Amino acid sequence: xxxxxxAPFFDDVFPxxxxxxxxxxxxxxxxxxxxxxxxxxxxxxxTKLIYxxxxxxxxxxxxxxxxxxxxxxxxxxxxxxxxxxxYNDQDFEDENIDLKFITMNExxxxxxxxxxxxxxxxxxxPKEVNSMLNKFELKDSHELF
Length: 145
Fold this sequence. Notes:
Blueprint: H1 10-21, H2 28-43, H3 65-72, E1 76-80, H4 89-93, E2 98-104, H5 117-123, H6 126-132, E3 136-139
Parallel strand pairs: 1-2
Antiparallel strand pairs: 2-3
């Protein structure tokens, strides 16, 4: 708490972090889902979380992505730019699914680009963070090299 104690939104965000850390669920997916839901609630983002483990498919890990996309009728899969190292464009193209990688636009905040969501929430209001969420680009893998 000391590092952020003077941050403008510390009093709003720190209790959320305490609740996240205090989550007793030993299942990583459930722990992360709880974390995500608490942050969405704080941000007034209304979304339904679906756990891939609830969808019965024989594939696991990265091999489960294309079947999940097909299960939900998705024609595009968006991943963080680091995913360019593990996903093959052709695998998605063969299934008529567009593979994109999300990158934040430069200058969205005055904070360093690669700080965590915690840093962002501590320094910006939910309204400001929601505005930042729309400042991204979707790129093809060849655009990241």
